[in-house]
Amino acid sequence: MKNVLSGIFAAAFALSTSAAQAQDKPPLKIGGILDMSSLYADITGPGSETAAKMAVEDFGGEVLGRKIQVLAADHLNKADLSGNIARDMLDNQGVEMIYDVAASATALAAGEIAKARNKIIMFNGPGSIRLSNEACGPYTVHYVFDTFGQANVTGLAAVKSGLDTWFFLTADYAFGQDLEKDTSNVVTKTGGKVLGSVRHPLNTSDFSSFLLQAQASKAKVIGLANAGGDTVNAIKQAAEFGITKGGQKVSPLLAFVTDIDSIGLETAQGLLLAEAFYWDMNDETRAFSKRFMERVKRPPTSAQAGVYSSVTHYLKAVKAAGTTDAAAVMKVMKETPINDFFAKGGKIREDGRMIHDMYLFEVKKPSESKGRWDDYKLLATVPGSEAFQSLEQSRCPLVKK
């Protein structure tokens, strides 16, 4: 009896010691650097933080015996602040991976900090092609979309349909400049012409002078090389000025379902746009989106869906690698295909670009829509190998040629 009791006490002691050791392990922290309050808040913001938390919950809340903790901070669309947040997260808060970083200038700033510290950073909200070109890094992943892919899918379709003269309204920072450049290249290579461009400050409320210049150009297409609130305001004001009724097409080179909802189908109908994800494509996208909508009260944007997918991919790689060491985790991430509701056969290349299908949509007429958020009809699926820049074209120093 004494031996039996001794065995029980020994087992109980071992279990309590094991539990105590697990509790002693620090949490695995992942940090989002987001636009929580300005023109990109609907695209990323609180919705991206929610998507990251959903991914953690679905994964089980812990990995390698460590609880997973999701942090988020507002960069206020300031590159210097984004860099400072990244530095604080990695140096002081013990963050192992940074996700999202909405907007390109802020992403470029945070990316340099992560690169200097050999930490993984996964971009979902920013679009600049520089993130997988000159600014690439061994632990940098550009997951959802980029300016090359957006330009390639939208610009190519437009020029092929006869919309072959363009004028650009461009947000005056890294993303807008890259989007204009990449779309201009597509237009001219396909036989079209660029008649001019004008740059506007970020978060502009009055587009009248810029739109009048675009109207005066008589270009068939006014390409909007901007995003979020700037895209919404430009399209609304173009309609108010009668520009679209006058025969010119407005083409948003980056738009999200939240933007179309803000604009309204009456004004947005007929717009062509490229997206990496749409909530109503199939049973898998609808199932995730239903759960997301229960929390956020609207469907996920492609950036937010990408946050869920990329955080899940990272956590699976941590588990498979048996460590949070960036080199070991990144090796698993690049070797493992991504197959979920966001991407089928997705692959992270050596330049950090995640290759996946892109989609060309047309915005429905009000009469075609069955209700709010039923905004798109699919025109074409473009394989990732055709949508994104090829490795041969890459300016990433990591790419062996």
UniProtKB/TrEMBL annotation:
Entry annotated with the keyword Transport: yes
- Where does the UniProt annotation place the signal sequence? 1-22
Superkingdom of this entry's organism? Bacteria
Protein name in UniProt? Amino acid/amide ABC transporter substrate-binding protein (HAAT family)
Domain Leucine-binding protein, by residue range, is 27-364
Instruction: Write out the similarity annotation.
Output: Belongs to the leucine-binding protein family.
Asked whether the keyword Chloroplast is assigned, the reply is: no
UniProt-listed InterPro entries:
BCAA_transport (IPR051010), Leu-bd (IPR028081), Peripla_BP_I (IPR028082)
Q: Which UniProt keywords apply?
A: Amino-acid transport, Signal, Transport
GO BP terms: namely: amino acid transport
